[in-house]
Amino acid sequence: MKIPTVIKLLLLCMICSQKGGSQEGFTSYWGQDMEAGPYAIGFRTLFTYDEARSAVPYSDWDGKLTFNQAQGKGRQMQINIWYPAEVQGTPLEYGHYIDLLGRQTNFSAEPTELATKMFVDQTNALGGNGQFTAEQLDGIAKLSTQAYLQAAAVKERFPLVIFPNGGSPAYQSIMCEYIASHGYVVAAVALKGQYSSTIDASTRGIEFAAADLKFTLNQLLQLENVDRDRIALIANAIESSMCTALAAKNPLIKALISLEGGLLSSFEQRLLRRTNFYTPSAIQIPILAIYAPHPAISPEFITQLKYSERYFIRFPGMSEFHFLNYGLLEKEVPGIIGPPKGDTQLGFAWAARLSLWFLDAKLKENEERKAFFNHFEIPSLAAEVIDTAYALPALASPPTITLLKDLFITKGMQVVDSIYQSFKIRDPQVFPLTFYTEFRDWLAWKKDPDYRFRAQLYEMAVESYPSSSIAHYYRAYFAEEMGDFTLARKNYQLALNLIPEDEDPDLTNNKRRILQEEANKALARL
């Protein structure tokens, strides 16, 4: 899709007009390619506890536990917030954010020693390979940020962006400051696992992280400068899938940015599908997917999120963690997380800029930004660091199961079938497979005494999911109940044939065995 020349000129003007923002010059912490917005940036930290859950100990990345948490107060949730501010003063040093690393589980602890160890160890684990030292950390800790501690907030409501990361706030602070300077409240939080401070890369871990995000959101909605109708999430690594899990459950979320996140991997898609709440149909918000070359990452893994506008941008010279502060810290400590593949400073700046434009388009309805995403391609000024940019449109989503139940009660099954027929013209899988189970069980309670509606329901299911052994089994079961034994035999046999290769994540080995036994019994009976 070609972008008109007038839009290209507009982009150039927008970038040039923002250079310098509200402050004179740039700190070395931000870098020369970052353009500040019109607002000074305030910073504050909320030391909160989720009293409905237990405290967790600190765990390093190797699994060693430190039981330094405050007992009896609940799950520790340190929430760091950047926001448009009225006044400035003396900006914070980067070391303030690093020190907060050491207070994630014990808010009253003396942070320096633990925080230093955490930052050094984690930086080396991300690719520093033992080359990054405490002495180098002392140097970058003295860098000036562009945030002012406890500055008075502008008395206005702003869109909210939540940006979780396990190294919060020291890993994502530059991006958070940048977005806040353009008129957003930005919150960073370290998500935790079930039993320790380290997140679990599992389905259980995603569910606990989604609960952390929900708690964080509830705390932030109490702030006077937050607009609850304009909320977005941005995340790197597995936190992008954790944010997607929250978006699947919470309609307040209006946009999502996967900043080289694992959301675009088959592994994390499998984890998400195993949760109780994630289905592709539950995600109906625009998604910006910024990614770098990686064998496990590909836009193809979120093609099933068909009810979302999806925008894909690839940075060939970047790697996963250079989209965090490391992309700019590279100029202070070359090779800080290993030799870079390209210009990480310019790559970081464009990732931040495009993330901001996406937020402006989707949360602020900014017409200039909307024009850019309506004519989406690589900005000419970014061609050095971006090699791919394209969009996938969103399909219209069918009614929710709640509305379909209401339509069934008021107008009958023919309306449900009519909706299915109209939507399948563009979308062969109108309803997720889980829909058929839930609607079937609902019909079973005194709404379908002769099995006619459930048989009709599973006609839709086998048409939409011809490789589903479960769909064919229930098509056979209800055909048998209605006396159509020929159809029943056919579909029981199809179910048996499909069981070995069925990729349904809900079909455990035990369920496969039971399904096979029941289908064999039915065929013997018929």
Helix-strand layout with pairing:
Blueprint: H1 5-18, E1 40-50, E2 58-59, E3 65-66, E4 75-85, H2 94-101, H3 112-128, H4 134-141, E5 147-149, E6 158-164, H5 173-181, E7 185-189, H6 203-220, E8 226-237, H7 239-249, E9 253-261, H8 266-273, E10 287-291, E11 310-314, H9 326-329, H10 344-363, H11 367-374, E12 388-392, H12 401-411, H13 413-423, H14 433-443, H15 452-464, H16 469-481, H17 485-498, H18 509-525
Parallel strand pairs: 1-5, 6-7, 6-8, 8-9, 9-10, 10-11
Antiparallel strand pairs: 1-4, 2-3, 4-7, 11-12
List keywords for this structure.
526 residues; alpha/beta; Rossmann fold; 2 domains; ten-stranded mixed beta sheet; two-stranded antiparallel ribbon; 18 helices
Q: How far is the N terminus from the C terminus?
A: 58 Å
Low-confidence stretches: 1-27
Strand-and-helix sequence, N→C? HEEEEHHHEEHEHEHEHEEHHHEHHHHHHH
Radius of gyration: 26 Å
CATH architecture assignment of the largest domain? 3-Layer(aba) Sandwich
* Fourth-level CATH superfamily of the largest domain: Alpha/Beta hydrolase fold, catalytic domain
CATH fold label of the largest domain: Rossmann fold
- Residue fraction in strands: 5-15%
Largest sheet: 10 strands, mixed
Instruction: Give the overall shape, derived from the CA principal axes.
Output: elongated
